[in-house]
């Protein structure tokens, strides 16, 4: 038996809940002063005030004194593309010089540039880079991360990327949740034949992904000049029929109707949503689709931010994630996301924390096992250096993380 007690926390912020918090509920964090939490064999078995810790439990246990500190659930980064070969630093420079993301993409840069470099990278190289990137995310307090394929666009490389994530999930202490994003861009040899590309993804690659049990989710880039709503729908329905859950890159640059599609097919989340319509938002509320907002991408592409305030006022469950990728948003920085959400998206500190914990978990359909400090959930906890959670956004752009605990084990100190 392995038991860990964290006690004397100035604030134990539980974020308590077993499903996404919608709208106004996002402001409820549930803060316990002089808090304590006990993790046994990886799972939370007791939460309360330090003086109430049952004596019998205190006898055999490793103890961490969190005096003057704040304890939070581990952050859940529910949207990333962290497995890729090569980099696109030249494109970043072009963007600074005034070229926009879609123009660069039309010139053969963009996603297909990373595709070439990922096709050329070995499994070992991708694993090595992946481990380093996970270490960096962990230092920001992330304990679960979603990762997408989509820099393959062919059978071998899509499978390679997903196998890398499987290996990383085994090797790294963090949990990696894999998403098949075969329909991420149109490869050059399929230009003008997008339907044929979707057909091969559905009939050739998807069965292999499912057969090898390599993905939990399927995602598509539903965007003008990439895949239409109809093509996205075909891909996602086929994936759902094979047992994968759906996510969508929706209404990022043009209001195409991705939010509406997410509601129609019962996607777990729709992501980006900078241009989502009021009808789309309403439909998502009714169907309990999580809105995953990615302010790092809007920041890096100099786009307007998603309408987080309107979405929460309409009753949506909002999650925040980094969208870490080599093109539109090369950052895994949680402090940056927190700064953007609180300063530029009109999200309260409490809403921002909910969006990165419980609602991030809900965006991965995992709100029953992670995302809050509740009895029965995984013991994924982060100790922050200050006595109140309000320091987390206040220390702008700098991490406040001191210790990261995954399933009751200290993994970063
Ligand atoms: O979420 N929008 C599409 N996919 C990524 C960008 C990936 C890339 O540029 O490499 C995104 O922003
Ligand atoms: Fe993305």
From TrEMBL:
Highest taxon of source: Bacteria
Cofactor section: Zn(2+); Fe(3+)
EC number of this enzyme: 3.5.2.7
Binding site for 4-imidazolone-5-propanoate: 88, 151, 184, 252, 328
Family (UniProt): Belongs to the metallo-dependent hydrolases superfamily. HutI family.
Domain Amidohydrolase-related: 70-410
GO terms under cellular component: cytoplasm
Cofactor: record remark: Binds 1 zinc or iron ion per subunit.
Source organism phylogeny: Bacteria, Bacillati, Bacillota, Clostridia, Lachnospirales
Amino-acid positions noted as binding Fe(3+) in the UniProt annotation, renumbered to this chain: 79, 81, 249, 323
Enzymatic class: hydrolase
Major subcellular location class: cytoplasm
GO MF entries: imidazolonepropionase activity; iron ion binding; zinc ion binding
Pathway: Amino-acid degradation; L-histidine degradation into L-glutamate; N-formimidoyl-L-glutamate from L-histidine: step 3/3
Binding site for N-formimidoyl-L-glutamate: 151, 325, 327
Keywords: Cytoplasm, Histidine metabolism, Hydrolase, Iron, Metal-binding, Zinc
The protein's name: Imidazolonepropionase
Cellular localization per UniProt: Cytoplasm
Gene: hutI
């Amino acid at each position: 038996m392995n038991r860990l007690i964290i006690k004397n926390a100035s604030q134990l912020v539980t974020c308590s809940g077993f499903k996404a918090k919608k709208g106004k509920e996002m402001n409820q964090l549930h803060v316990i002063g002089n808090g304590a939490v006990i993790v046994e064999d990886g799972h939370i078995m007791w939460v309360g005030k330090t003086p109430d810790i049952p004596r019998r439990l205190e006898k055999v246990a490793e103890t961490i004194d969190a005096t003057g500190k704040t304890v939070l659930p581990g952050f859940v980064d529910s949207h990333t593309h962290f497995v890729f070969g090569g980099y696109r630093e030249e494109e970043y420079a072009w963007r600074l010089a005034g070229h926009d993301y879609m123009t660069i993409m039309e010139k053969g840069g963009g996603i297909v540039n990373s595709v070439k470099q990922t096709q050329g990278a070995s499994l070992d190289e991708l694993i090595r880079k992946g481990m380093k990137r996970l270490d960096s995310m962990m230092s920001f307090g992330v304990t679960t991360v979603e990762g997408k394929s989509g820099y393959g666009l062919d059978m071998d490389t899509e499978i390679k990327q997903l196998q890398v994530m499987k290996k990383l999930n085994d090797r790294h202490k963090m949990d990696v949740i894999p998403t098949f994003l075969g329909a991420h861009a149109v490869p050059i040899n399929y230009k003008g034949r997008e339907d044929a590309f979707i057909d091969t993804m559905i009939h050739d690659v998807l069965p292999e992904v499912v057969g090898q049990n390599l993905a939990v989710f399927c995602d598509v880039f539903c965007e003008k000049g990439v895949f239409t709503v109809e093509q996205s729908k075909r891909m996602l329905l086929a994936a759902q029929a094979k047992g994968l859950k759906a996510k969508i890159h929706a209404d990022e640059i043009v209001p195409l109707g991705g939010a509406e599609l997410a509601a129609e097919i019962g996607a777990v989340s729709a992501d980006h949503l900078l241009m989502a319509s009021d009808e789309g938002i309403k439909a998502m509320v009714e169907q309990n689709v999580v809105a995953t907002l990615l302010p790092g991408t809007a920041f890096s592409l100099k786009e307007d931010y998603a309408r987080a305030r309107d979405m929460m006022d309409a009753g949506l469950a909002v999650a925040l994630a980094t969208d870490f990728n080599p093109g539109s948003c090369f950052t895994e920085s949680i402090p940056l996301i927190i700064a953007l959400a609180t300063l530029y998206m009109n999200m309260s500190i409490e809403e921002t924390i909910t969006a990165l914990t419980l609602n991030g978990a809900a965006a991965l359909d995992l709100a029953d096992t992670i995302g809050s400090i509740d009895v029965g959930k995984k013991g994924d906890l982060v100790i922050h250096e200050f006595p109140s959670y309000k320091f987390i956004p206040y220390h702008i752009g700098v991490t406040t993380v001191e210790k990261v605990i995954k399933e009751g084990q200290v993994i970063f100190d």
